[in-house]
Write a structure and sequence with these properties.
5-stranded parallel beta sheet; Rossmann fold; alpha/beta; binds phosphoric acid mono(formamide)ester; 16% strand
């Protein structure tokens, strides 16, 4: 398996590597910055090189929303999408679903709030698409500038004030503001945490059996107060652990 990350990653890249190793496979770790792309080699030529090296699986992350269309079915190896621009992050969505299922023993009849930078989030995009298979409700909260258009949302998804949403939710997932994807959005950190982040006031709204999630990386004291990251209802580090099991399952499914 080759980890072919053309955009930075910690969790996804290394949990795929741990998953492959636990399954008895080998990993090649490609580093875009020190690769021959700095000499002008294209994405396609880089992938053709790994094809010639004889890899079985390429785990690819790229900042282009539609890179997968350009490369799928072109090579002899299977491709796993490890994050495509603002569009898709399917393995994250599977590990999020697994974490919720593990806690509630179901993905049905839940109320789930996603709060933060929704419009450019591939985590939110993949999660919302996955939830069409279940009879649950999704609320989206956050700054108006970072919300999708209401008319683009499926019928199980609606925009709601964070405090009202949180008081009704079984799952509250906070997302990072992705400055790299919309540089014009000015963020006042103190204002953001008070208005949209998890803090000591807002945590009081959390239902006793609700869980807190965040895909990471998180900005401490922005979308979540630093001391609440390891709150007893937080599944944030469980999500990272579950990322390994989920990715082992994805790899086994592809190989078999
Ligand atoms: N959640 C996630 O995709 O994290 P990384 O960017 O570190 O892989």
């Amino acid at each position: 398996m080759a980890n072919l990350f053309f955009e930075h990653s910690t969790r996804t890249k290394f949990s795929f590597e741990v998953a492959v190793k636990r399954l008895g496979g080998d990993t090649l770790n490609f580093d875009a910055e020190s690769s021959s792309m700095s000499k002008g080699e294209t994405l396609e030529d880089t992938l053709s090189t790994f094809n010639a090296l004889g890899i079985d699986i390429g785990i690819i992350r790229h900042s282009d929303d539609s890179y997968i269309d350009a490369v799928k079915e072109k090579y002899n190896f299977s491709i796993i999408n490890a994050g495509a621009g603002k569009f898709e992050h399917p393995s994250q969505s599977l590990l999020d679903l697994y974490t919720i299922q593990e806690h509630f023993q179901t993905l049905e009849n839940l109320t789930i709030t996603i709060c933060g930078d929704i419009s450019t989030s591939r985590v939110a995009s993949s999660f919302i698409k996955a939830m069409k298979h279940f009879n649950s409700k999704i609320y989206l909260s956050g700054p108006q500038e970072l919300m999708p258009k209401e008319c683009d949302l499926p019928n199980y998804c609606q925009i709601k004030d964070i405090d009202k949403a949180m008081a009704q939710s079984d799952v509250v997932m906070f997302l990072r503001v992705q400055h790299e994807r919309h540089k014009l959005f000015e963020l006042n950190i103190d204002h953001y945490n008070k208005s949209f982040g998890l803090n000591d006031t807002r945590i009081k709204l959390l239902k006793p059996n609700a869980i807190i999630m965040h895909p990471g990386p998180f900005n401490r004291d922005v979308e979540i107060a630093s001391h609440l990251i390891e709150h007893k209802q937080s599944k944030i580090f469980k999500q990272k652990e579950n990322g390994v099991y989920t990715r082992m399952a994805i790899l086994e499914w592809i190989v078999s």
